[in-house]
Write a structure and sequence with these properties.
Blueprint lengths: L6 H10 L3 H14 L8 H8 L9 H12 L23 H8 L2 H8 L12 H10 L8 E4 L2 H21 L1 H20 L1 E2 L2 H24 L3 H17 L3 H17 L3 H13 L6 H17 L3 H16 L13 H14 L3 H13 L6 H18 L2 H15 L5 H16 L4 H19 L1
Parallel strand pairs: 1-2
């Protein structure tokens, strides 16, 4: 059988300045993040260049490898593989997304979805133009009619789910959120109502979808989290909710930062700030803190510290009320200080700032404390302060035993590797014994 050489793939390889081996390694690495165990080498790429197409599930992985290398979106079609298979890219219909997420039999497939490092997001100017040109008269929906009480129900449930996230972890809270979205919110989004109520419902729904994406991100389901964030942007845009729109972009910046994409993290953070030109002091602090982290990740020390100063000044002017979703307080500020210092290479300073973050964190924020202690303990261990790290790891385990969280699992894996590699002192041996007990408890659940 005669095949047509894939000149489009060859052109992308040349643009990326990659050899066959480099592309194969990138595809294998990105595939693992999507739950695919791939073992490609240079010979597989040679076959692709000759016209052989990889499996449909692998084609978007190849495209994503080029997207991350080139810093722009790349499609399967551009790589010479034809159109991407249905449902393989972010932006799936929200109704299908939440119904799949609440179905345990399909959730593993969703959580293995691919995160796109080169997805484009409209900026404030483009958003404003779309809103100005939009027809705000909402068409009539089903015979069900919604009012302000339904909007308040969505907002109240969003706050309740945020509380459950802090108390029990995302492993319990996200399925509840997906079920409420599928069974209650989606029908209300299709229902009849006045233009004002419909707009309010869109805004309320966008806030809950954003929170669901946040939980997916913290459960290491980054492709799924990105899909939720994309849907939240659409709902916020349709509901003219600039606060949730910029809050979601800020969440996407944090996701990019967690995955190590510094330039993308800064781009999203700047876009979030641009979308909220008249933000109040707490929201301003929320946005500037993330801009500081993004600047530090691209090694712009001057800009990072300037943004931190703006964050502190704005937070000092904020009132006493902190939102359950997208809130920002002094604990979050010191966490950002720690992140900036760590990105700039100041390990002792980052540890000191994280300790301060823990000191001022509200006692009910167990999920946040768990994550902060995992980060702090790993950095103490990295600095060689093993005894202090053992104490912090013990505090981490106090919360970890009662929370269902993949982010906690990630920290626990780091802990297990640490005590296995360096079992020397008595404190480390005692910690290792507790680790084995906790591992057995988690396995039995």
């Amino acid at each position: 059988m005669t095949r047509t050489p894939n000149r489009q793939l060859a052109a992308l390889l040349a643009e990326a300045r990659w050899g066959n081996d480099q592309l194969a390694r990138a595809v294998n690495r990105i595939g693992r993040s999507a739950g695919l165990e791939l073992t490609y080498d240079h010979s597989a790429v040679s076959h692709w260049l000759k016209g052989v197409r990889p499996k449909p599930t692998v084609r978007p992985v190849v495209a994503e490898a080029f997207a991350r290398r080139l810093g722009r979106p790349v499609t399967s079609q551009e790589a010479g593989f034809g159109p991407a298979p249905a449902g393989s890219t972010p932006g799936a219909d929200l109704a299908d997304l939440v119904r799949s997420d609440m179905d345990p039999s399909r959730r593993s497939m969703l959580t293995a979805g691919l995160y796109s490092a080169a997805m484009l997001v409209p900026g404030y100017t483009e958003l404003a133009q779309r809103l100005d040109n939009a027809n705000h008269e909402v068409r009539a929906g089903r015979t069900v009619r919604i009012g302000e009480s339904e909007v308040e129900t969505v907002r109240a449930m969003t706050e309740r789910i945020a509380g459950i996230l802090d108390e029990l972890g995302g492993g319990h809270a996200r399925p509840m959120s997906a079920a409420f979205l599928a069974n209650t919110v989606m029908p209300w989004l299709q229902a009849d109502g006045t233009p004002r109520v419909k707009k309010s419902m869109l805004a309320a729904a966008s806030d809950l979808v954003y929170l669901t994406g946040w939980m997916a991100m913290y459960e290491r389901a980054h492709g799924l989290g990105q899909q939720y964030f994309t849907e939240a942007l659409t709902l916020a845009q349709d509901g003219q909710d600039h606060v949730t729109y910029c809050r979601t972009l800020r969440g996407m910046s944090l996701q990019a930062a967690n995955l190590g994409y510094g330039p993308r993290a800064l781009q999203y953070a700047d876009a979030a700030a641009e979308c909220a030109p008249a933000a109040g002091p707490r929201l301003t602090a929320f946005l500037r803190g993330q801009q500081a982290h993004g600047a530090a990740m691209v090694r712009d020390q001057r800009l990072a510290f300037t943004r931190l100063g703006q964050t502190e000044a704005a937070l000092a002017k904020a009132d006493g009320r902190n939102d359950a979703v997208g809130g920002y307080d002094w604990s979050a500020y010191h966490f950002h200080v720690s992140s900036v210092l760590y990105a700039l290479g100041d390990l002792p300073g980052s540890i000191q700032a994280m300790r301060q973050s823990n000191r001022v964190r509200p006692a009910n924020e167990r999920q946040g404390r768990l994550h902060a202690n995992g980060v702090l303990a790993a950095r103490q261990w990295e600095l060689g302060h093993v005894e202090a790290a053992c104490v912090t790891w013990g505090e981490f385990l106090d919360d970890y035993t009662t929370l269902a969280t993949a982010r906690g699992d990630e920290h626990f894996d780091v802990l297990r590797q640490s005590v296995t590699a360096h079992p020397g002192s008595r404190a480390v041996r005692r910690l290792g014994e507790r680790v084995r007990v906790v591992a057995g408890q988690k396995a039995a659940v």
